[in-house]
Design a protein that fits this description.
Length: about 220
Amino acid sequence: MWVVFLGPPGCGKGTQSEYLVHNHRFSVISTGDLLRANLGRVVDAAAGKTINDIIGSGSLLPDEVTISIIKEELSANDSENILFDGFPRTIVQAEALSVMVHDLGKKIDKVIYFEIDDGLIVKRITGRYKCVRCGKIYNKFFLQTRVDGVCDVCGGTDFEYRTDDNLESLTKRLKEYHGKTQSLIDFYSKSGILAVIDAASSFKDVNSSLLGALYG
Ligand code: AP5
Ligand code: MG
């Protein structure tokens, strides 16, 4: 099954993709994670801007950059179940993805739209932290480690916050989302593969809605 996760910052895409990787043998292609692994790369030579500068400001990367990353990832990935977390985010990216999957003889089976109001996102973003060793995502308001300072999954004791998880970047990220990404809801609804889930509820309820949408 090939699946796309669509939704604003902090809606729970990364959290639910962790679950699918560990329990349903999905391979995740997350543009955010791939970009964060290449923060020093210059993507706007004229303005001297690196990936770090653009992510930090909350803007989207140019389409050609993310599309070429996805092409490269897909050519190296022969998993049966692929989950796209954070791609596509523009109509141009969605059209490019349609061409890529068609050329590979595949199709996108489902697009899951994580529906949530902007007002609920602030605590999710400003409270997020992550285990450096295994990547498990936590939240100081909603999901703390069971033992203070020790990762539940791997026992790691180093945690990190994202540099774009501040109010200023979040405001820009939400503006980008509403201006450029939200139109994909309509795009995929027309092709009949969109499932809408309530992303404002508890971890467990979001998870059961997701499983219902994928396998129900
Ligand atoms: P990316 O890393 O994808 O960030 P994002 O879309 O802003 O989404 P987040 O990762 O912030 O949120 P999430 O939905 O994964 O939420 P999570 O599960 O962590 O992209 C970063 C940047 O890269 C972009 O701004 C852009 O610059 C660039 N980029 C990426 N893709 C691009 C593309 N295609 N084109 C151009 N540029 C691109 O959860 C958040 C928090 O909430 C966590 O603390 C979690 O514990 C908590 N939480 C989760 N679920 C619940 C729940 N049900 N109840 C309570 N708390 C919850
Ligand atoms: Mg994420």
